C-alpha cells in the first residue's frame, strides 16, 4: 500500500477518465515545504501567514515577511502558491495588538476586518507579498470576506501598494492573482457577483460549515451540528463552483473537507478545480481520484443536492464507493 502510494508522488492527479484536478497542500510555515514536496503536491493551496505574527513581541517587518514568502515561492518553482493575508482574531490573538474582549470572537473583529482597520499592518504585508511575487506563481488571498466592498477595498489597497513599489523602481510581477476565501455564507450566496471581480475562490469549509450551521467549530456540545455533508453546506459549495466557472474563474477548497474521502467524489462531481489539504492526505487522495470517473460522479450531483440530511448523503456516497471497491 505504501509503495503503491509512493509511485504516485511524481504523477499528476487525473481521474479514471483522464480529467486533471490539482491537489495542493496547506502549510503554516516555510518549514512545511519539505513534506509538501515529498508528498507530491501540485501547489500550495493555503499558506497561513499567522505564524509570522504569533509567538513574538512585535510585528514582523516587511523584510522578514518578504524573505518567508520568497522562500516558499522559490521552492515551489512554477507551481501555484496561494498566500493568505493575516487571519488573526477569533481564537488567535497577538500580545502586542491588544483587542477588547468580544462576546462572539468568531463573529467579531478578525481577519480582513482587522486588516482594513489597521492599514499599516495590512499594507506592510501586501508590499512583502508584491515584492515576493517575482519569485514564483503567487496568488494572494483575502480571508473572511463578507461583502463586495471589503474585497474592493482590499484590492484597491493592493493596487496602491503595487503602484507605490513600481514608482520606486521595485519589480512586481504582472501575473499574480488576487482572490478570496469563501467561508462566510453571505459570500457563498453572492458568489455570482464576486466571481466577476476576483481572480479565484478558495472555499474555507472549516469556517463555512460553522457559520452555515451556527455551530462553533471548537464546541464539543454542538459538534453534532458541524456537518460537512449537510445539503445546506453542499448547496452553497455547488453555487460557488458554478458561479466561478460561469465567469471563467477557478475555484479551490482549503478547508479540511477537501481531503476527506467521502467529500472528494462529491466535490469532483461539482467541478471543483483544486483541493488543498494537509500534505499527508495528498497521495491517498490522488489514488482515490485515479479510481473515480468524472463522468460518473457528475451524474450523482443532482441526486446529492436534493437529499435532505447529511446521513443520507454519507450513506449514498459510501454505497457508491463500496460498489466500486474504492
Ligand atoms: C477554513 O476556514 O476552512 C480555513 C481553511 O481557514 P482556517 O481553518 O485557518 O480558519
Ligand atoms: Mg477560516
From TrEMBL:
All copies of domain PEP-utilising enzyme C-terminal, residue ranges: 4-292
Similarity comment text for this entry: Belongs to the PEP-utilizing enzyme family.
Keywords linked to the UniProt accession: Coiled coil, Cytoplasm, Kinase, Magnesium, Metal-binding, Phosphotransferase system, Sugar transport, Transferase, Transport
Catalytic activities: L-histidyl-[protein] + phosphoenolpyruvate = N(pros)-phospho-L-histidyl-[protein] + pyruvate
EC number: 2.7.3.9
Enzyme class: transferase
UniProt superkingdom: Bacteria
Summary of the function given for this chain in its UniProt record: General (non sugar-specific) component of the phosphoenolpyruvate-dependent sugar phosphotransferase system (sugar PTS). This major carbohydrate active-transport system catalyzes the phosphorylation of incoming sugar substrates concomitantly with their translocation across the cell membrane. Enzyme I transfers the phosphoryl group from phosphoenolpyruvate (PEP) to the phosphoryl carrier protein (HPr).
Cofactor: Mg(2+)
UniProt name for this protein: Phosphoenolpyruvate-protein phosphotransferase
Compartments it resides in: Cytoplasm
Record's keyword annotation contains Cytoplasm: yes
Primary residence: cytoplasm
